[in-house]
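Justification of resources, computational component.

The compute hours requested in this renewal are based largely on the per-chain cost of generating structure records like the one below. Each record pairs the submitted sequence with a full structure-token output. That output is archived, and it is also reused by downstream analysis tasks.
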Amino acid sequence: QVQLVESGGGLVQAGGSLRLSCTASGRTLSSNHMGWFRQAPGKEREFVAGISPSGGSTKYADSVKGRFTISRDNVKNTVYLQMNSLEPEDTAVYYCNAVPSIMAPLPLLNRWGQGTKVSVFS
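The structure output for this chain reads:
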């Protein structure tokens, strides 16, 4: 059974940057579209960014477009999220999951990782 482990979160001032990582174990996800999601306090989990298996195609939520960059290293079975120009509204717990397609960014795996918390202060 695949296990996802997110890391890289932290406390950062508005305008700062963080790089999140999501590493899969149990099986390779190199043939899967992958996505980053986030859940802010009191809100539902939402899609943030997605990437195709080759890394050649990406998709972003409007709220992060131009500030976040998703990438992947299939050898390391890891997906990254580079977050720049962070805003207090980006405060949330961030999760990764496989998705059917970056154009249909719904989580495929029932079991989520523990997530990594990002807190942005002004």
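The chain has no helices and ten strands. The beta strands are 3-7, 10-13, 18-25, 33-39, 46-51, 58-60, 68-73, 78-83, 92-99, 116-121.
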